[in-house]
C-alpha cells in the first residue's frame, strides 16, 4: 500500500526532491536513457546492470538504501565480527550526494571503480574512503579508525594472532612510508605515489579486495 502511495507521490514531486527521484529507479533506470547513462558511466555490461539492479531492488525495494539497512546487509557477509563501523565508513564513501541515502546509481558507480577501475581510480576511491572527514587529507587517526574497523569486522577467527595494538602498528608503518614531507597528514599525491611504488602497500590494501 505504502509503495503505491510513494510511487504516486514521487511522480508528482518536484525534481528538487532528489532522494525520492532516486528512489524511483523503476521509472528512471529502466527508461533506456537511464541504463545507457550507467553503461557509459560504469564498466558494467547491460546484462550485468540488469542483474545488479534486480539484486539491489530485492534488498532495497524503495530503490535507495539508508545507512541502517546498509549495515544490516553488510553484517550478513561478516557474521564472525562486528562490521558496523566499517559499514558506516563504506556507506559514507558510497553516499556521494551526502544525503544519507545510497541510490542504485551511487552503488554501481562505486562498485564499478572497486571491481573494474584502473589502479589510479581504485586508489582515488580508497583515499576518499580513508579520508573520513573528506577534507582532502588522511590523518593517522583516520587511518587507525579504518584499520581498527577492518580488524573488528574480520573477527578474531580470521586473525587469531593479532594483538590489540596490531592496527596501530600497521598504521605507523603505512604512515611512515606515505607521509613524505612529514607534516602529519597524507595527501592524495603522497598516497598515490606510495601505493604505486611500494608493492607491499598495494598488497596490504588488496586485503580489502574481499572486504568490499
Automatic annotation (TrEMBL):
Xref: Gene3D superfamilies: EF-hand
GO cellular component, one term: voltage-gated potassium channel complex
Chief site of localization: membrane
Domain of life: Eukaryota
Localization terms from the record: Cell membrane
PROSITE patterns associated with the record: EF_HAND_1, EF_HAND_2
Keywords: Calcium, Cell membrane, Ion channel, Ion transport, Membrane, Metal-binding, Potassium, Potassium channel, Potassium transport, Repeat, Transport, Voltage-gated channel
Name of the protein in its database record: EF-hand domain-containing protein
Organism of provenance: Oncorhynchus tshawytscha
Amino acid at each position: 500500500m505504502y509503495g503505491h502511495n510513494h510511487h504516486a507521490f514521487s511522480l508528482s514531486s518536484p525534481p528538487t526532491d532528489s532522494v525520492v527521484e532516486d528512489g524511483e529507479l523503476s521509472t528512471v533506470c529502466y527508461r533506456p536513457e537511464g541504463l545507457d547513462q550507467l553503461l557509459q558511466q560504469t564498466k558494467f555490461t547491460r546484462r550485468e546492470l540488469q542483474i545488479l539492479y534486480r539484486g539491489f531492488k530485492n534488498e532495497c525495494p524503495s530503490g535507495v538504501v539508508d545507512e541502517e539497512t546498509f549495515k544490516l546487509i553488510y553484517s550478513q557477509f561478516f557474521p564472525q565480527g562486528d562490521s558496523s563501523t566499517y559499514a558506516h565508513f563504506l556507506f559514507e564513501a558510497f553516499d556521494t550526494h551526502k544525503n544519507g541515502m545510497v541510490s542504485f546509481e551511487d552503488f554501481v558507480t562505486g562498485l564499478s571503480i572497486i571491481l573494474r577501475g584502473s589502479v589510479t581510480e581504485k586508489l582515488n576511491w580508497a583515499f576518499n574512503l580513508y579520508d573520513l572527514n573528506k577534507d582532502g587529507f588522511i590523518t593517522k587517526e583516520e587511518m587507525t579508525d579504518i584499520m581498527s574497523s577492518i580488524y573488528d569486522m574480520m573477527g578474531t577467527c580470521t586473525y587469531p594472532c593479532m594483538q590489540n595494538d596490531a592496527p596501530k602498528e600497521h598504521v605507523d608503518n603505512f604512515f611512515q612510508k606515505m607521509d613524505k614531507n612529514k607534516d602529519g597528514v597524507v595527501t592524495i599525491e603522497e598516497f598515490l605515489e606510495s601505493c604505486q611504488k611500494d608493492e607491499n602497500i598495494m598488497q596490504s590494501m588488496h586485503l580489502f579486495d574481499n572486504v568490499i
